[in-house]
Amino acid sequence: MRKHLLTLIAGSMLLGCASPPPASPPAAVATLRDTGRDDAVLALLLADMAAQRGDYAQAAAKYTAVAEQARDAEIARRAVQAALYGQDVPAAIAAAQAWQRIEPQSVDAAQLLTGLELQRGNAEAARTHLRSLLALKNFSSRQDYLNLVRLLNQNVPPETLLGVLDALLESRPDDPEALFAYSLAATGLGQAQRADKPSARLLELQPGVDEALLLRAQVLLQTGQSQAASELLRGFLKTHPRHAQARLTLARVLLEEKDYAGARDAFETVLKQDPANGDARLAAALLAGQLGDRRTARAQLLKLAGDEKRADQANFYLGKLAEDAGNPLQAIDRYARVKAGEHYLDALLRRANLLAQQGDLDAGVALLAAAASESDDNRTRLLLAQSDLLLQGNRALQAEALINEALAQEPDSMDLLFARSMVLDKLNRTAEMEQDLRRILEIDPKNANALNAWGYTLADRGERLDEAHTLISRALEQSPDNPYILDSLGWVLFRKGDLVGAESYLRRALSLLPDAEVYAHLAEVLHAQGRTDEARKVLAEGLDKSPTDPRLLGVQSKLDP
């Protein structure tokens, strides 16, 4: 990941920095030789040799020294290139600082130092370099500022990035393009509160500019000021009744206010004015589906499915509609038509699950296996999905073999180790299961999933209950509102005889996750307290949602033998 970030910085700021530095050109060597600096010539050649054999730390150090000695900015650039390729942030910063001393007016050096200090987490230094950059470079357009934000936004915590970008507001408090870029970045990073004042100032400076008004409305919406957003947009729409984006933004405000009829009217107005507006049609379809109007939702999605650009999205939601309506074959067909895009993987997983549910487990597993062989990015997730299907089909040994093969390539993959532990639990090989969970906790001592799974397994087996309680409590510290962990804690307390405590945690879990297992656990706890009528009521609620769940049916047989 670190190399990826450095490559992004280098590729954006310095031509060629994402590749190893080539040998110094003869002209550079000749220039040094002509000035009688034989020691510098030797150092430069040694730096080249170090780079060629992959010793980028030595290469960066020697290039930096030669650059300072010869006052040569190009050699300093070469030093930065070597350090970046060697993934050495401090060395890259040292080389860039040398470059800046040699060439104080270099925009590239200032820009590079801003990004590198930000990556290192030194926000104050990054701000200082950003101020220098703003003084050196003429940011004359919105795109200039947006490019800068995109360049700096490389897996940096949002608060840190925006703290550095505050230098924009300090240096250009009344530059509309700077205000726009900052406000857009803040809203995109989920920090809309930081865009409140800048977006308000932007609208003061550009009261008649559509983009300024729409951005301000978005900030108001994200900061909980929906009434102000609604008033702003309604006023604008009185004079711009055909402005689709403003009306769609108003619809989102109305949805936030739970005015579903108003939102539906807004979508319909946009579609009357522009039947080809795919955003409005999709939003109208999803709202109709949410309100239970499947016929309208399906009709809108079928229209979208005829649009090549929207077909994948439309087919995915058509598949979900069919699945929710209990038409698995129709759902499988629609999911199979999703060929790419953000919903492709979800459609593939749903299709495989439906195939398995229809009795064709082999087809579902084969579908996932074929996709895994073609995807590096999603290979582990697809493999885990195969394992889940095999477990559902009572093929635990086959699932174990599949995961073992993957672990041979990635022995410390926590996802794979966790998946195998669940398989081993199914096979009642508890000691081996604990070994995998222990290994996960060696890698990540605060892994809530591993702590919870280990503790719950012990509790469910009625073994080492104090240890189980400790493990689950540690998991809850990491994830206090996780319903699965709350359920586990309730269950271990039940096993230990604390029925009041067990009920409290299980009710909390049920309020967050109306899952069959939680219903079953709570019903059993109530039954153990002698509150059989309450237990039957809880059980009935669970069976209404999951009528064939074996855990619920098992508790039912205890209540009504």
Protein architecture, described:
Helices cover 77% and strands 0% of the residues. Mean pLDDT is 89; it is low at 1-8 and 10-18. It has a domain at 1-137: Tetratricopeptide repeat domain (Serine Threonine Protein Phosphatase 5, Tetratricopeptide repeat), CATH 1.25.40.10. The protein has 33 helices and no strands. The protein has helices at residues 2-13, 26-34, 38-52, 56-70, 73-85, 89-102, 107-120, 123-136, 142-152, 158-171, 176-188, 196-205, 210-222, 226-239, 244-256, 260-273, 278-290, 294-305, 311-324, 328-336, 344-357, 361-373, 379-392, 396-409, 414-426, 430-443, 448-461, 465-478, 483-495, 499-512, 516-528, 532-545, 550-559. It is mostly helical. Helix 1 packs antiparallel against helix 7 and helix 27 (448-461) runs antiparallel to helix 28 (465-478).
Describe the structure concisely for a colleague.
It comes from Immundisolibacter cernigliae. The chain has 561 residues and is mainly α. 77% of the residues lie in helices and 0% in strands.
